[in-house]
Amino acid sequence: MIKLGTIGTNWITERMIEAAHATGDYLLTAVYSRHEASGEKIANGHGDVTVYTDLDQFLSADDVDVIYIASPNVLHHSQIIQAIQHDKNVIVEKPAVLTQYQFQNILDELSLHPQVHFFEAARNVHMPAFHVVADYLNDVDGIDGADFTFSQYSSRYDKVLNGETPNVFNPQFGGGALADLGVYPVYDAVGLFGVPERLAYYPTMISTGVDGKGTAVLNYGDFDVTLNFSKISASTHNSEIYHGREIITFDSAGEVTEASIIRENQRQILSPLYGKNPMIPEMSDFARVLNDPDNEQNQADYHRWLEQMQNVNLVLSRLANFAGIEYPTKLEED
Ligand SMILES: NC(=O)c1ccc[n+]([C@@H]2O[C@H](COP(=O)([O-])OP(=O)(O)OC[C@H]3O[C@@H](n4cnc5c(N)ncnc54)[C@H](OP(=O)(O)O)[C@@H]3O)[C@@H](O)[C@H]2O)c1
Fold first, then answer.
1. Which first-to-last residue range defines the signal peptide (predicted)?
2. Does residue 328 fall inside a structural domain?
3. How far does CA 175 lie from the centroid of its chain?
4. 44, 78, 266, 318: which one has the fewest Cβ atoms less than 10 Å from its Cβ?
5. What CATH code is carried by the domain that includes residue 81?
6. Is residue 64 part of a domain?
7. How many A from CA of 137 to the centre of ligand 1?
8. Which of the 8 DSSP states describes residue 69?
9. Closest atom, ligand 1, to C-alpha of 167
């Protein structure tokens, strides 16, 4: 069993624990929170789990193999570095970090701790439907373009409209649409087509000073991929890849729970609906590597994910740069 410790006590941590336990590979052993009661809420119902309110004591715990980090984006970098320095494997929520410098800094730290594994929880590219689409595109000669959309109205935008600044819409916390839902379509594009030759990002800035939504255009020479993502409006658009008379389609760019191909109005299912907790495939993939790190296939997958993560970080950094968005490197306390 992989012994799991968590940072961050919002709903996503509970969803990840549910997925981790569903794989049968993990056991929750430790929870960190700044507040005992929030930690207890996460630990509750999972048996013998220690709740820590001191980060260093949590990171020093002997009965923790991997740390899942679901804190505000701006805190990821320092928490990842500290976890690696304590020889803990890391699964960090997207976006892993906010700048290219931070990413390089993590690679440097990993080289000092070669036994440590570092994963980004970008669940969409671990979904069965994503693999089916990628395999299909491997056998396709050339594509004509793609449109990926992931837009969900955030209930926390109501707070913005009421004059508050929740973390996800706070520039000091690395908030905004690109560093949130935007990560998923960037992952889809980089995972399927690689790093674009040219790119542009046109954000809609909101009162708190972050991008509430935006459109990015990634140019791959012969074709363009358009990414639409929003936290201040919703969309039911499917994601589409154009190939002559064919449309390869999957649901939202962030979910990728099913995939089809449409030819002359006839739909053929490529990958049926994945109806379970969508964090199961990624947690299962990470467990495979952690359980058998010397396996050749596992090593190849791990290095491919690490390279993909770096390419996504590069594309996100360039998109932010294009739009004049600067992310904070650390949390400035008031
Ligand atoms: N994969 C997905 O589907 C998904 C979904 C949602 C979010 N996410 C990612 O998960 C991460 C967390 O997002 P979120 O919306 O849950 O963030 P959040 O609610 O703002 O904060 C998450 C947790 O971080 C801790 N925290 C909050 N403010 C802090 C501060 N000032 N200093 C130190 N710790 C603080 C809190 O835990 P304690 O109070 O217990 O310390 C809180 O529960 C982000 O990277 C986001 O992109 C992923």
1. none
2. no
3. 14
4. 266
5. 3.40.50.720
6. yes
7. 35
8. E
9. 20
Instruction: Specify the long-range contacts of residues 9-12, CB closer than 8 Å, at least 24 apart.
Output: 9/33, 9/35, 9/38, 9/39, 9/41, 9/42, 10/70, 12/70, 12/93
Q: In this predicted structure, what is the pLDDT of residue 332?
A: 83
Taking only the tens place, the pLDDT of each residue in 20-60 is: 999 999 999 999 999 999 999 999 999 999 999 999 999 99
**CA 92 to ligand 1: nearest atom:** 45
pLDDT tens-digit profile of 118-142?
999 999 999 999 999 999 999 998 9
Q: How far does residue 9's CA lie from ligand 1's centre (Å)?
A: 7
Q: Are residues 251 and 222 in the same domain?
A: yes
* Domain total in the chain: 2
Average pLDDT over residues 150-163: 98
Terminal-residue alpha carbon distance, the chain: 41
**Is the CB of residue 12 below 6 angstroms from any atom belonging to ligand 1?**
yes
Percent of the chain with pLDDT over 70: 99
Beta pairing partners, 149: 228
Helix-helix angle 11-23:36-43, to 10 degrees:
30
Provide the pLDDT for residue 133. 98
Ligand 1 pocket: which of 33, 53, 73, 93 to mutate (most atoms within 8 A of CB): 93
Same domain, 134 and 274: yes
Q: Are residues 129 and 265 in the same domain?
A: yes
Q: Is 180 exposed, middle or buried (0-12, 13-18, 19+ CB in 10 A)?
A: buried
Q: Ligand 1 centre and the CA of 92: distance in Å?
A: 11
- Domain range enclosing 86: 2-123+281-314
Q: Does ligand 1 have an atom closer than 6 angstroms to the CB of 121?
A: yes
CB atoms within 10 A of CB 276: 12
